[in-house]
Specification:
Distance between the termini: 151 Å
Strand content: 5-15%
Number of strands: 8
Order of helices and strands: HHHHHHHEEHHEEEEEE
Strand order of the largest sheet: 3-8-4-5-6-7
Structural class: alpha+beta
Largest sheet: 6 strands, antiparallel
Radius of gyration: 62 Å
Helix content: 25-40%
Number of helices: 9
Length: about 325
């Protein structure tokens, strides 16, 4: 721009509206007044006289606005960006997307592999099962065998053979009989006729009973060849001339029920369900013939067992 004073001026040397009133370093008051007289008003304040003047005024105003605004490179550090960053997908969203892709790919892969093998099974021909059945029938016809029977051949008579069944009880009785045959000593009945211990004593009952520890259990046995529970008690007491039945309930009925505190070694221990008995040994122990898997033994009475005590001879 050229003034009427004949000196070129840069529009940027003119103070803009709202700028500081401080004078630049090295500028005199007369120089400031001179500059102020040549200030260019904003484009909005001066009406353009032509299209070209309007374009030039708009360009000058844009240039002035651009200089007043800070450059992008000069933006203060830490100033947030204007555009919002696209939110990242969470791990759960990525997992869901992965599962969805797998659900789509697996059936497609299966169909890709299976279709070539099954393409031929959709025809109108016979199935594989029908073809196999036809082949089997053909083989049977080719390998068929025939048997010719003479017209005068006698007919054979078919009869069912007779058989007998042996119960478990009979097998046990046979075993007991065999054990009796192996035992040659006196029986309970013989001891009743001639007792080995004429004077009955509970302590002696314990001593006699201990002689048979280790004798095997035999159902129905009442000799040292093999004892069951009541057969063992009967055999021991028979040696004192005391006749007891070969039955737990009957043996319990032959004596007098006593309390556990009054029980002494040699008394009978009766299980409350009358399914078992033995000879009391004191201190919570019992001498008995337990079951087929064990032999005559001494063991403690367990707290969960329901028993009561019976004394014979009173």
């Amino acid at each position: 721009m050229t003034t009427d004073h004949g000196r070129d001026l840069d529009p940027t040397d003119l103070p803009t509206p709202g700028s500081s009133t401080e004078q630049p370093t090295g500028t005199t008051p007369g120089r400031a007044a001179e500059l102020e007289s040549f200030r260019i008003a904003p484009a909005a304040e001066v009406a353009p006289t032509s299209r070209r003047a309007a374009r030039e005024a708009e360009a000058a105003a844009a240039k002035a606005r651009q200089r007043r605004q800070p450059r992008a490179a000069e933006r203060p550090a830490g100033r947030p960006a204007q555009a919002k960053a696209k939110p990242r997908a969470t791990r759960s969203q990525r997992n869901v997307r992965g599962i969805a892709v797998m659900l789509l790919m697996v059936p497609a892969l299966f169909l890709t592999v299976a279709l070539p093998h099954t393409a031929g099974s959709f025809g109108s021909g016979p199935s594989a099962a029908a073809a196999a059945a036809d082949e089997l029938a053909k083989l049977k016809l080719e390998q068929a065998q025939g048997v010719t029977v003479a017209s005068g051949a006698p007919a054979q008579t078919v009869e069912r053979d007779d058989y007998t069944a042996t119960s478990g009880a009979e097998l046990r009785r046979a075993e007991i009989a065999q054990n009796y045959e192996a035992y040659s000593g006196p029986t309970a009945a013989q001891y009743l006729e001639n007792p080995a211990y004429p004077n009955f004593s509970l302590s002696e009952v314990v001593n006699v009973g201990l002689q048979y520890v280790g004798v095997p259990y035999v159902y129905g046995g009442a000799t040292p060849a093999g004892f069951d529970c009541s057969g063992f008690v009967k055999y021991v007491y028979a040696q004192f001339g005391v006749d007891l039945p070969h039955s737990v309930p009957a043996q319990a009925a032959r004596g007098t029920v006593i309390s556990a505190a009054d029980a002494q070694p040699g008394d009978l221990v009766i299980w409350s369900d009358h399914g078992h008995d033995g000879i009391y040994m004191g201190n919570g122990n019992v001498l008995h013939a337990p079951n087929p898997s064990k032999s005559v033994m001494v063991r403690p009475l367990y707290s969960f067992e329901s028993v009561y005590y019976v004394r014979i001879g009173i």
